[in-house]
Amino acid sequence: MVSQTNEQALEASIERALTGSCREDGIALGENQAERPFSPAHGYHPGRPDHFNPHYAVDTHQLWRFLEATQARELDKLRQRHPDWERKLLERYDRLVGKHGLLHLLKKGLSLDDAHFTLMYPSPLASSSASVKERFAANRFSCTRQVRYSLANSLEEIDMVLFINGLPFATLELKNPWTGQTARYHGQKQYRQDRDPSQPLLQFGRCLVHMTVDTDEVYMTTRLSGSRTDFLPFNKGSESHGAGNPRNPHGHRSAYLWQEVFTRESVANIIQHFMRLDGSSRMPLTRRTLFFPRYHQLDVVRRLVAHVSEHGVGQTYLVQHSAGSGKSNSITWAAYQLIETYPSAEDVRGARGLETPLFDSVIVVTDRRLLDRQLRDNIREFSEVKNIVAPAQRSADLKQALEQGKKIIITTIQKFPYIIDGISDLSDKRFAVIIDEAHGSQDGDAHGKMNQAMGGDAGPEEDVQDQVLQAMRDRRMRGNASYFAFTATPKRSTLEKFGQATPEGEFKPFHLYSMKQAIEEGFILDVLANYTTYRSYYEIQKSIDDNPLFDTARAQKKLRAYVERHPQTIRAKAEIMLDHFIQQVVNHKKLKGQAKGMVVTQNIEAAIRYHQAISRLLEERGSPFTALAAFSGTKTVDGIEYTEADINGLPEAETRETFDGDEYRLLVVANKYLTGFDQPKLTAMYVDKKLQGVLAVQTLSRLNRAATKLGKKTEDLFVLDFFNTTDDIKKAFDDFYTATSLSEPTDVNVLHELKEALDEVGVYEWHEVESFIGHYFGNADAQALSPLIDAAADRFNDELELDDPHKADFKIKAKQFVKIYSQMASIMPYEVIDWEKLFWFLKFLIPKLVVRDREADEIDALLESVDLSSYGLERVKLGHRIGLDETPTELDPTNPNPRGAHDGGSEADPLDEIIRTFNERWFQGWEATPEEQRVKFLSIARSIQAHPDFEEKYKNNQDTHNRVLAFEKIFEEVMLKRRRADLELYKLLTHDEAFKSSMQENLRKVLG
């Protein structure tokens, strides 16, 4: 006899796995249709199709058996009062399930007259009493094949239905690829076309989930709507981190569904802690949304809870989940379940008994406003105690929430450093800190302050050394807190702080849902499928006869930046953008006429100029739509001060919501809305900004949100890039397309070498460092700190008579020491107290170190020697599909080598050579005469010279590194303003996240 490979064979194998036997076994044994015995080892009762009542969509045999065995006293109340008690109970159930849905009844039960019936007993905890465990064991899970569900067509059957106490929680249509039938196509088609959603079993809310299954894949939906039914993949992901399931050496690829997901404990856990009915209970059931977790959401939360239960408090977890993974739901499910996570044993770290949860509170750090509402909605569904979620915008809010016993506290990344300032002693508490989008905000001091909240401040009786050690411990991830970092794009520092260390010395994510899988499963769109790049050309003429020498790289960077921001240039690009957007997006009525575009610019000045140019062009063309601008703060351009609210004519807080309307189709941004901005109507992006690494992925991913109701497809997406090459973008996305890991930890020993090099120069005496630390941690007045800093600054600036190259070398090394220590202090396994002292001293000293740039005036001369004559654009690649590397990415740690001003010399070239190099680099392929290609470039500095703040904020600032390396960044304005403040302002570096992040961004540029 040959193997059975048809659909019936798959049915039989699933039934056998759930019940311990199958119908085919019974026939072979000559048992006919007699009820097969229950196998406790498998957990499901074998059901019979004739026990199913299609009118009520209930297996009445299993329901009565369950109620008789567990709640006979309540049944007796009905029997005494109603001869037809069975019909009364079924009618009551039918009315309530139609109003509230099955999920509500499984959690809350059903009341009739003075009797109340529990319809499902919840799963017990490890510490639960024997009676709780016995009640759960009394639940009757059953599996029935070939269920005739239709009142209209009595011969119509569903392959398999799974019940809990006679109530249906899952229907399954089974297919077998070996016979040419797949779940992806044939199973979904069968539900859409051949199954009647008006029948009780298939009505929304009366069965929790509907699945189509074959030997390789699983798809699910909670709402059957005929041809409009949307199915979601319920797959693990393939070996190559794409869609599908990995090879199973012991059976079918999809066997995890019945071997893991459909176990009694698993189903009860999903019903109790994952499934929720969105929307108000006052809304009609059909207008609400029933959430069933996708596989990776179910898996990550269960893995986190299991690991915490086994390993206790003080762990770190990195969850690398792509955009489109549903991180908001994953975080809310994790937050709720972590507050009810109990230790698996008495000796688990942080355990306070088996009956006490490991964590007192869960702190969710996020910028997503929707999470607050989602958390509250989830808790309302899951918890008997409703008011356990609290927002916290100030330290007083956080303290009050903790004192009132709030279990989940929500705050923002920007507010968190301020919130912890008012916390005195939380060391006796246990925390789970969930960080949404973990990179960036967790670098350096901000994360140090986050950890400071997790422990007590030093008491007044402690001496300076004790206080420094306490500060170092505070900067670490405290032993009374576990950290759960969720991000789609983990950087090196994120991997090292939160990743799981392997025996080989690598750092890997705790859980992965890759960008590749999200794209292949259709949760996000491929933003790189239609990429067009332009290359710019400038025609210049030489206006001086001599041929001075200039630093080639710096001169080229300045000249290109100036030309790219020139109004003439911006108008030329704006015309190309509008030509495409109107002709290809608006006129083609993409997304049912609602498609939108985003213009990404270099900085706020460029955003304002772009908005002006686009608005003028739209007015000239008589366009029915307009554009909005988005940027933070104020900016003066051509002598006029602008804000986002002034330009848009509405409050800044309303920009996001207003852009969703029909009147506004384009949004011009600088740095705002490049991350965390979910607008599914975005289909086109016009980029005039250098994008690399994480920023490139986050920015372009604004387009990837699916919009099924609007028919959004990958073909609708379009990127027009004036600045980057396709190779640049491919390099950025490759790192995060599949799995990301860190090859080895950062070598912190470089701090020894940097400290030795800094000590040798003689800028400071160690007793001055000690004295500064004593005053600073002793809460001394700022006037007591200034003389100590000024003494070292005076030596550097004048007394030691250091030449400019040696000054530059010292300052670079000082900045490198501060950056590396700030990043590594929270994860170093040991404490070096001298590093901590020098770190604080240098943070205050560096702003007062003056380094003059002798080449600055020479490059200014370059500005006077070139003039912009004309500007041109050539399309390099049109509609190019950027293919990504599927190989998992292994990042190398941050360069551990000390750097200084002498590590690489600049290359000086005559002006003519710079012009020739520019032409070769940027303008190859331009079909023009050599004379036409003879280009002169104007420097970006000429634009700055016309800026009203030029004298104060640039020319008189002699710090060449901040000036040059921060030249392209708008953050320089904040830095320059703060450089002229008193010492008190610099203390904000340890409290002000925005200011700190700005400084770190500049330092990252300095160190490469």
Structure description:
By secondary structure, the protein is α/β, with parallel strands linked by helices. It is built from 41 helices and 35 strands. The protein has a seven-stranded mixed β-sheet, sandwiched between helices. Helix 16 (445-452) packs across helix 17, helix 29 (766-777) packs across helix 32 and helix 31 (804-824) crosses helix 32. The longest helix has 21 residues, at 804-824. The radius of gyration is 33 Å and the shape is globular.
CA-based shape: globular
Beta-strand residue fraction: 15-25%
Quickly count the helices: 41
Integer average pLDDT: 76
Low-confidence stretches: 27-34, 438-447, 449-477, 538-545, 866-871, 918-947, 957-1008
Q: Count the E strands.
A: 35
Cα separation of the termini: 68 Å
Radius of gyration: 33 Å
Quickly give the structural class: alpha/beta
Major sheet description: 7 strands, mixed
Which helices and strands, and how do they pair?
Layout: H1 7-19, H2 23-28, E1 44-46, E2 52-53, E3 58-59, H3 60-70, H4 72-81, H5 85-100, H6 102-108, E4 110-112, E5 115-117, H7 130-137, E6 141-148, E7 157-164, E8 167-174, H8 183-194, E9 209-213, E10 218-221, E11 232-233, H9 256-261, H10 264-273, E12 276-278, E13 289-291, H11 295-311, E14 316-321, H12 327-338, E15 361-365, H13 369-382, E16 389-391, H14 395-403, E17 408-411, H15 416-419, E18 431-436, H16 445-452, H17 464-475, E19 481-487, H18 492-498, E20 500-501, E21 507-508, E22 511-513, H19 515-520, E23 531-542, E24 549-551, H20 552-565, H21 567-586, H22 590-593, E25 596-601, H23 604-620, E26 626-630, E27 634-637, E28 640-643, H24 644-648, H25 655-659, E29 664-669, E30 682-688, H26 693-700, E31 718-721, H27 726-737, E32 740-742, H28 750-761, H29 766-777, H30 782-799, H31 804-824, H32 833-845, H33 855-864, E33 866-880, E34 889-891, E35 908-910, H34 911-922, H35 930-933, H36 940-945, H37 950-955, H38 960-965, H39 971-979, H40 983-987, H41 993-1007
Parallel strand pairs: 1-6, 8-9, 14-19, 14-22, 15-17, 15-18, 16-17, 18-19, 23-31, 25-29, 25-30, 26-29, 30-31, 32-34
Antiparallel strand pairs: 2-3, 4-5, 6-7, 7-8, 9-10, 10-11, 12-13, 20-21, 23-33, 24-35, 27-28
Helix pairs in contact: 5-6, 11-12, 12-13, 16-17, 21-23, 26-27, 28-31, 29-30, 29-32, 31-32, 31-41, 39-41
